[in-house]
Amino acid sequence: MSQTVDRALSILPLLAEGPADLGQVADRLGVHKSTALRLLRTLHEHGLVYRQSDQRYRLGARLIALAQEAMENLDIREIAHPHLVRLNEQCGHTVHLAVYEESEVLYIDKVESRYPVRMYSRIGKPVAITVAAVAKLLLADLSEAERRALADKLEYPMYTSRSTPNAPAFLRELEKVREQGWATDLGGHEESINCVAAPIRGGDGRVVAAMSVSAPNVVVTAEELLTLLPLVRRTADAISGEYSGRTPVKDGL
What PROSITE patterns does this protein's entry cite (predicted)? Predict the structure, then answer.
């Protein structure tokens, strides 16, 4: 039975490459055409594959609908949280998770620093959108037209001397973040707080969330915090893999 299920499931990635006829399916599975036909008929009955008029098979609408429903019901916070906790245990600093919703970037999860100096940020609270590292990542993933339209609508408060001063500077920063694939806030919101962030991507490659590590200067310098960037990016990649289904969940992480 497990071999039959394995063979049936192996048909789906083949058809994801494009329509295939019975012979192609049989060849890919290494089975007789009669065996391939039985598997295809079963998948067809469940709406997972569709037989075209040219006798080739393609992925069925039911499979696409199931995938869409699954994506809509995924909770990025639930998936990300164990990874954020592990990162916090490794570095000791505050870890945030943020998403872009209705023209705001919001924190949806936070793991507190082990150090006495704490961040004032709160879950559900909008971030300083023109300077926050997580905001830069989320907004950099928008189309150029969307970025320009948003940049023109924003205000640019000078929280510190390092804050983003205007729309042209903001757009340049977003383009830089888009190219390098990570972001920083080095004293742009508070002089004493630095932050490094990495994107979390869905199966289509789009940024669905962003995560960051933040720490005050009294605990770690900006240069020392930047050395954590590879670890932050690996954590974001692990979350992305699990969220998109590219990598299996490991027990206990």
Answer: HTH_ICLR, ICLR_ED
Amino acid at 21: D
Identity of the residue numbered 131: V
Q: Among positive and negative, which fits the CA dihedral 27, 29, 30, 35?
A: negative
Q: Where are the strands (E) in 36-176, listed by range?
A: 49-51, 57-59, 94-101, 104-111
CA-based nearest residue to 243, from 196, 197, 210:
210
**Could you report the per-residue pLDDT of 189-234, keeping only the tens digit for each?**
999 999 999 999 988 899 999 999 999 998 999 999 999 999 999 9
Model confidence, pTM = 0.70
Q: By three-state DSSP, how is residue 69 classified?
A: helix
Q: How far apart are CA 206 and CA 204, in angstroms?
A: 6
Q: Which residue has the tokens 């971030």?
A: 127
Backbone angles phi, psi at 11, to 5 degrees: -70, -35
Question: Residue 125 gets which letter from DSSP?
Answer: P
Tell me the two tokens of residue 100: 């872009």
Quick one: which H or E segment has residue 213? strand 207-216
Structure token pair of residue 60: 């069925």
Q: Which residues sit opposite 101 in a β-bridge? A: 104
Tokens describing residue 116: 């006495």
Cβ neighbourhood burial of 48 (10 Å; 0-12, 13-18, 19+): buried
Burial (CB < 10 A; 0-12, 13-18, 19+), residue 23, is: exposed
Asked if residue 148 lies in contact with residue 139, where contact means CB atoms within 8 angstroms, the answer is no
